[in-house]
Design brief:
Blueprint lengths: L7 E3 L4 E7 L14 H12 L5 E5 L3 E7 L3 H5 L5 E2 L2 E2 L1 E4 L6 E2 L2 E2 L6 H4 L14 H14 L1 E2 L4 E3 L7 H6 L6 H16 L3 H7 L2 E3 L14 H4 L5 E3 L23 E3 L11 H8 L5 E2 L2 E2 L44 H17 L3 H10 L4 H14 L12
Parallel strand pairs: 11-12, 12-13, 13-14, 14-15
Antiparallel strand pairs: 1-2, 2-4, 2-7, 3-4, 5-6, 8-9, 10-11, 15-16
Length: 387
Amino acid sequence: MAFSQTPETDHSSGTTTLAVKGWIDSKLSSNPDSGISALLSFLEKKADRKILSHRLAGRTVLLITIHANDSSRFFHLNGFTFAGAVLKVENSRPPRNQANGAVQPPTGPRSQQNGTFQSSRPLAKTPTSEVEKVMIAVIHKRYNAAEKYLTLEALATDPDFVATGLSQESAEKVFKALFTICETKVFETPSKRREMVKSISLSSNSLTTVKDILSLSSAFPDLQNLDLSNNRFEDTGALRYWRNQFRNLEHLILSGNPVDLKPETKATILKWYPNLKFYNNEPVRNGPMLGFSTPTQPLAPQGSLPTSSHPEFPPGSTFGVPQPGKSEETLTKELMGLQFSFETKLKMQFVEQCLSANGWNWDAAVANFKAMQVAGSIPAEAYIPGV
């Protein structure tokens, strides 16, 4: 995707013109005014700012004139749904390097084309206000409100970054500025950032250490999905600054990095992120339903209760069965405990002790059990008799 340059601004009046697209596919497009009055009300309400004037450009593009200082408010609506249609809010004119609708490849040094940030001149070379405008525009363009997804992939090849010289800056400077703007200009409060951004992609930025994107963890500490694919992280040492961050992370992608080829990487990542459910688009563990390793005997015959073949539970026990009021976390731990008991022959009391002591990390608990078993430190009464 290519992104437009900064908005067309009338500096004499302090106004900006934006283009709104996609509304023609809405349920209100059959109205006598094609739904424009409803669209204008929607935009003003969501942006909490006034639209000064509007006009049509063709049949499907609505040009709106707003105060220049309000542009970020309206850019934020890119990806919002209006009467069943997904809106696109963008600058009112195409990028300089776009001709006949085709996006031209960025020009400049080879390092820029390969998506590598440089460190050849200070960030302030371009006036700060202009840099900020470009960054705000790029953030809004790359934010999908419906999916709560912000993609910052291959920024050094972004046409706007190339045009302003930002692609020649160091990654650390650029990302620090971007995430500061996210915090202060776009997603201004912690609750906004928590609710509006669940997923971020930093793929293909030639990153070698998370020190270059360290501020991501302070701007979006509650992130659930993070894509770091196709960068240059050599080993887990390049990621160590984040080992106590992102406690709610559920999906991490490291494919396309040298670190992903290291045999110890996955185990380390699972230890750092206890809530991780997916790694490189795959469940963190293989197995039925919850992704745990396959037990040596099935939990129960198909159609029966999970505890039916476990001697410690009475008939009809709902342990491991979804119930009203039972949280997903509780259900997960119950099934995990049952499976661990079937595999190790341990009583549930000792199963819970082992899993809890290892942070409910299956691999760590199995390793702990095997080590104690070899050392002969598991008492006989810990095992289910006759099993």
